[in-house]
Amino acid sequence: MKWQKLFRAALDSILKNRMRSLLTMLGIIIGVGAVAILVSLGQSAQAAIADEIGGLGANLLFVSPAPSDAGGVRGQEGRQNEITMADVDALRQQSIELGAVSPATFSGGSQIIGGIGNWSASIQGVSPEYQAVRNWDIAQGTFFDQAEVDGRAKVAVLGQTVADELFPGQSPVGAQIRVRNVPFKVIGVLEAKGGGLGGDDQDNVILAPVTTVQSRLRGDNSVDVVFASAADPGRVDAAEAEIKAIFRSLNGISDPEQQVVDVQSQASILEFANTALNLLTALLGAIAGVSLVVGGIGIMNIMLVSVTERTREIGIRLAVGARGGDVLTQFLIEAVLLCLFGGLLGTGLAFGFAAIASALAPFEVTVGMDVVLLAVVFSAVIGVFFGFYPARKAARLDPIEALRYE
Questions:
Q1: Of 198, 255, 283, 331, which sits 20 to 30 A from 117 (CA to CA)?
Q2: Angular region, 291: left φ>0, alpha ψ -120 to 50, beta rest
């Protein structure tokens, strides 16, 4: 019963001065809202990165030429080592840890003519294994096979964006497009993957046999990157080591410290991205946390003013039998309630921001229950920490001196 009366008295005191209470909570509202927003942004970005990296394909490994100063007989001063189709074939034959291997040659952005007009898209030369390595299904038609790669066939598979722009409302399968005056027959359309974290459209792409892109569009036999998938999800590190060993062997290098290629896995990319995001989130959260401290100091100041204004009231309470602990508890409850209300309003601000950010950002921003719980608990801690001194001052007032206060 006593606690109910103290809680009611504290709530009445807050509601009696609504505008002052709201202004007092403003610092907590901004502080909690800022921290919740930044933490939610960091968590949502991490989830989006994990989803996007996972969507690249199961156990994906990226193999690219290492800088020339990393070793390798093909490297020349100021240039990079090269990966050729012969290297890719040797990798397929010698590897026991890899499930699928696809070379990739990029031709950059090109103007595509076909359908109702023209469109600019990225051209990539790949092999049939690319579909399995990247976990990218066909929505219409078929993917090209090894015979078409060996024959340098002029066939292409369109990304969903290219298909929609050049052939709106119709199937492009069987139609012809031109890339740098080279005709290609469309044999399939990829399923939509959506936008990347950097805002790039993953569906604005055209895939063609790697040999065709090399001979017709690039004029060389080099490979920009090799996409490979580990056969066993638990042996990605072993697959990475095997790739490096095979390329050292192909280049006649016995020193294990010298590398001809750089190999990156999804796990390493995800770990790097998460580390960067965690550091950024912690830094921004610490900056936003300053406003929480400022808000707490503001509450302490207002509570001190309240103690001064209510000195006679406190004196009367003490004179009629209230104990110092009762006064201390009432003022602590007021401080905690102010901070809790501010924390809840700040969390509501974070939810509103998340709804707006989700409509504008390339990934969905959500406020997790852990963030809400953290905001509520932290708000209560702020209330106790900054409300204790004013509450203790009120509890230590001398009843006689308080009654004589004007």
A1: 198
A2: alpha
